[in-house]
Amino acid sequence: MAVLDIPLEQMTAEELLTEMARPHIPESHEARLRERLVETHAWMAKSLARRYRNRGEPMEDLLQAAYVGMVKAINRFDVRLGHDFRRYAAVTMAGEVKRHFRDRAWAIRVPRVHQERRSQLTKVSADLSQALGRRPIVAELAAEMGLSQEEVLLTLDASAAYSALSLDAPLDNRDCGGGRSVSLADVLPCTDEALDTIVGTQSVKPLIDALPAREKNILLLRFHGNHTQAEIAAELGISQMHVSRILRNVLSQLRKALID
């Protein structure tokens, strides 16, 4: 019996996807097949969203991210490889939910341009480290990226803010098995209990409010007011090196508080 002769309600996911892959399939029929796939796997999206609830994001947003992952899985799955669709969809959906959290990891507002340069800086730094046999200095990074040294320093600050809050930040000695160092993103699907002490990951405002007045002021001037370290130093009557040291210490404290 041809797949097309089987009622949609009786088709497996793989059969539905095989039917969708047929050449010259009518758009209306493809839409029905896609709708059926989403309907039969909606429970997976809901289950995944519930697993990540109480992490500082609305349930509706988590569910939407899971559905986006499901649609991506449907679009990308290749039935010719003979893999299990449900397993593939679960991985893709979980990845999309993690992406949702990562996209919101910039809890301290960092200028967009410095966020966007972060990945470029990471790559350039790695390339130069390999070529030079040592870590590059700011002047070398600036020359390679075509930026001023001040712009590189600003991007480094943005990277520090991100690593303090990101789900990709290492969780010290915690692991999901195998003795390897893992990130919060690795732990998320592992066990809910592992997250009981990290519920505030997306809510750093109380931590910032608890900082001493000067540290809080410097942090807000730097990341909310978009002041440079030199401008902050001039405003507070201290050296730029002192400002840099305070920022590093504060970001380190925030990170430790978030993962303890």
TrEMBL record:
Any GO BP: DNA-templated transcription initiation
Transcription regulation found in the keyword field: yes
RNA polymerase sigma-70 region domain span: 37-106, 116-172, 208-256
InterPro entries assigned to the protein according to its UniProt record, in alphabetical order: RNA_pol_sigma-70_dom (IPR014284), RNA_pol_sigma-B/F/G (IPR014322), RNA_pol_sigma70 (IPR000943), RNA_pol_sigma70_r2 (IPR007627), RNA_pol_sigma70_r3 (IPR007624), RNA_pol_sigma70_r4 (IPR007630), RNA_pol_sigma_r2 (IPR013325), RNA_pol_sigma_r3/r4-like (IPR013324)
TM regions (residue ranges): none
Secretion signal span: none
Keywords: DNA-binding, Sigma factor, Transcription, Transcription regulation
GO molecular function (one): DNA binding
A Pfam match: Sigma70_r4
PANTHER family (UniProt xref): RNA POLYMERASE SIGMA-E FACTOR, SIGMA FACTOR F FLAGELLAR
Protein name: SigB/SigF/SigG family RNA polymerase sigma factor
